[in-house]
Write a structure and sequence with these properties.
- The structure is a single chain.
- The chain is of the alpha+beta class.
- The protein has two domains: 140 residues, 60s Ribosomal Protein L30, Chain: A; 149 residues, PurM-like C-terminal domain (Phosphoribosyl-aminoimidazole Synthetase, Chain A, domain 2), CATH 3.90.650.
- 29% of the residues lie in helices and 27% in strands.
- α3 links the parallel β4 and β5.
- The longest helix is centred in the N-terminal third of the chain and has 18 residues.
Length: 317
């Protein structure tokens, strides 16, 4: 059952990491640090995310390949939300002694498959034995032209709010598992293998369309509140405009792990209804009054609280 020993496991990972050459890397896995060559005229983006067993995934629900894929998606989605291009990834992985090498190989199959698609080399990291459960910390390095990163703090009153794709699909699959059903990667692809919206983020930055942006990892209500807080504004969402599965408005508002992009744009900006085959939907507007509201078809508003994912919420009550 046990995975191979540390040195053998690192060498196994190193051999796979060599398959993705990168002009960024002067030196990758093998030394105490990676040696990087940042692109001239660009600023670096750095993000880090935990992926914890029984918090972000369950081994009995998701195959190892999906866990590895989702682990890297978390970082790539953050880079996309800044309008950046991913350059390299770093992974610290702690494994319990009772896990199989087959599971570990499957995890890296999923991670490397996604990394190869976006030409993101695994440039370093660490492996260790975990006292309980799988713990993965993914760090992704990206770049953006100097001064061009799309921030959360630059939304302005009058801006319209847009979202990509459809929301609530991931939590819908999660709820099926909780109900004793077993969705599959074919029936629930957004849950098992979500897509980082890197091309969309690049398009919005290159065309200078987005005034502020964030990725939807914790739920629409919570992530929109981050833009409102950082920009010191408020927001009104139109309930009938939010794209979601049937009877899934609450899942769209509070579900999380959609990894779509939520962005604001000036009212005169020409935002296509579709970008790269991905639907783009206007769902509300930024207002000067602080707070968030949800408006129905009759124009009646109710206060919208951030009720997406938040660590330690139960303990804080």
């Amino acid at each position: 059952m046990m995975p191979m020993r540390e040195r053998a496991l690192i060498e196994r990972i190193r051999k796979r990491a060599r398959r993705a050459p990168s002009s960024l890397l002067a030196r990758g896995i093998g030394d105490d640090c990676a040696v990087l060559k940042p692109p001239r005229g660009y600023e670096l983006l750095v993000t880090t995310d935990f992926c914890l067993e029984n918090i972000h995934f369950r081994r009995e629900w998701q195959p190892a390949r999906a866990v590895g894929h989702r682990c890297l998606v978390r970082g790539l989605s953050d880079i996309a939300a800044m309008g950046g291009e991913p350059l390299a990834a770093f992974l610290s992985l702690a494994l319990p002694s009772d896990i199989s090498q087959r599971w570990v190989d499957g995890f890296f199959d999923g991670l490397f498959a996604l990394a190869d698609r976006w030409h993101v080399p695994l440039a370093g990291g660490d492996v260790a034995q975990s006292p309980q459960g799988v713990m993965a910390d993914i760090q992704v390095l990206g770049s953006v032209p100097r001064g061009r990163a799309i921030l959360r703090s630059t939304a302005r009153p009058g801006d319209l709010i847009y979202v990509s794709g459809e929301l609530g699909l991931s939590v819908a699959a999660f709820n099926q598992f909780r109900a004793g059903k077993k969705p599959t990667a074919r029936s629930a692809p957004r849950y098992f293998f979500p897509e980082p919206r890197i091309d969309l983020g690049l398009y919005l930055r290159q065309q200078k369309l987005a005034t502020a942006m964030i990725d939807l990892s914790d739920g629409l209500s919570t992530d929109l509140s981050h833009i409102c807080e950082e920009s010191r504004v408020g927001a009104v969402l139109y309930a009938d405009s939010i794209p979601h599965p049937e009877n899934g408005l609450e899942m769209a508002l509070n579900g999380g792990e959609d990894y779509e992009l939520l962005f604001t744009a000036a009212p005169k900006a020409r935002i296509p209804h579709e970008i790269g085959g991905l639907a783009i939907t206007p769902i509300g507007e930024i207002v000067s009054r602080r707070g968030m509201w949800l408006s129905d078809q009759e124009g009646k508003r109710r206060t919208l609280k951030p009720r997406g994912w938040e660590h330690f919420r139960e303990r804080a009550k």
